[in-house]
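worker-03 picked up job from queue 'complexes'. Input manifest follows; two sequence lines, order preserved.
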Amino acid sequence: MKAALRHLLRGRRRTILAALAVFVPVFLLVVFLGMIGGMEKEMFASLTGFDTGHFQIRRVSDRPAGNALPLIRDPAPLLSLVDASDDVAWYTVRLDLPALAAAGGRSLGVVVQGISPAEATFHSPLARAVRAGRYLEPGDEGVVVGQQLLDALGVSVGDELILLGAHPQGAAGVALPRVVGTFTIPDPALGRGLVQVDLGVAQRLARTAGITAIVGYVRDVDGPWDAPRIVDAVARIRAQLPEGYEILDWAALAPESEMYLRIMRPITVAFMVAFFFLGGLVVLNTLYLSVLERTRELGIMLALGAPRRYVTGQVILESGLLATGAAVVGAVVGLGFVLGVEAAGGLPLPGAYEVGMALFGIEPLLRMRITAAEVVLSAMAMVAVAMAAAWYPARRAAALEPLETMRHAD
Amino acid sequence: MRTEAVVEARELHKVYVTGSVRTPALNGVDVTLSRGEFAAMAGPSGSGKSTLLHLLGGLDKPTSGEVLVSGAPISALSRAQLAQLRLRHVGFVFQAYNLIPVLTVLENAMFVLELQGLPLARRRKQALAVLAELGVDKYAHQFPNKLSGGEQQRVAVARAVVSDPAIVLADEPTANLDTKTSLDLIDLMRRMNEEHKTTFLFATHDTRLLDRVDRVIHLEDGRIARDERVR
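worker-03 finished. Artifact:
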């Protein structure tokens, strides 16, 4: 052990190069995994917060015309069921209506979401995204709209908006709510196409007492990695659902997003395997040079009677010490970077990323999240690669002929 | 009285083959070294001194013939068995000292004992005793590159004798040393030979060394030309 450490210190430049070959991939992997974790969390939060929820309970039937969801005319038994579930952290009801929003001679097709502000105020990310005015209050007669819609219609907070809505299973109606607040969210389609009103307003608009969905959120779900909890909760609720209703989880409600989240990590890991391979090659090359430099010394050891496994062990030990040290430093520095970015509330990304990030419904802000297991595995994987890379030089060292080495040396 | 043979060579032949070129190095050498001998092999360059030394120490294998160390034939031994033989029965001293640069003087002296599996306390005690005998114990915790050539060669001798091997084979041990240092080193090895009955065999041109050994084996063209007791 002492000798291996001294070897590392003796060939400082070589040691630094090999250590960097281990440090850099581990650091990058921790940072990349942190970025992926952060993106996954943000995308999941955006998707489930603004749109799908963790699950939705709907009425089963052929969709009515206009792409509207079928009405649940009597939600009470379903609400009791969800209310009684220990899995559910919170839920709300929603009445989604296709509608036309108009003001000052301009009009745009939107989805009117009738919600229950009592719950949404505390839980909905849309409530937290209000930048001007305020969010809805229980019994509110106003409307909150996206900034993009406000700009498109040329109205401001306090102005009246004409909502012409209809549900195929209800009737058509008109409402004239005032804009009480505007929200700013990264997804421009939602910002332009979604308006929220109190459930009562939406029900009057469609002339129905029904809703279209119960949107629920499962306890202790922080990201897509907690999806099994949602699956289990959904299964338990599904078992109790009355006939004619279905419960869909977020993956079924947004299959494209779910697939993207599912393949994002393997693709990143595949890139990192290439990084590790390159790092492994540098380690191999460095250790090979080290063995060449130490030909005489290793030959002397063999001449004095050292078994070949002793010589192999020396080279492997040296590489193990180097790889472990560099991998631990890489993991710690990477973890420090991730925690630092999170402590700072994320790193703002250049404006060029804004459009790209908006496609995934997230802000152009680098958020990071990593688990202890990911940090440890990143370091361990690189140590394993470095040890595998050390195998060839170690075998070569053990195959030296002591006499040849000494002739060469003398 | 019959003396115990520690190393024997019987009809040793060694031919080096490089491509289609065959270079005979030893042409039928018979020699026996007994316990406690202080002997040297002399001869011009290319006479086969180093080759014979390597064959006797199990560092190389003969083309034909047999080498016996402590009565046991070694020609058929595997590489691993030869390594064990060198570890247990043979000490080496090289012209260029060949100490391990990342080990201290004490660690160099203990190296063979460590390979033999001796506990630390014992190998430390044994190595320090030999280093003291050779007058280099004060450098125990220094690295070899801080020592002079003569001091390094003393450490190399300490490493060779520390495990009390059957024979110490020394290849031109004084070639890189000045006269005084050489004579001091030879005297030290002589003392170890007399006090511990350690068998020494040198391959050398050095007349300073040849004047102090008991027996000189003269090699010429891979054969023993003369084997004489000089003391």
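worker-03 released lock.
The mean pLDDT of chain B is 91.
The two ends of chain B are 19 Å apart (CA to CA).
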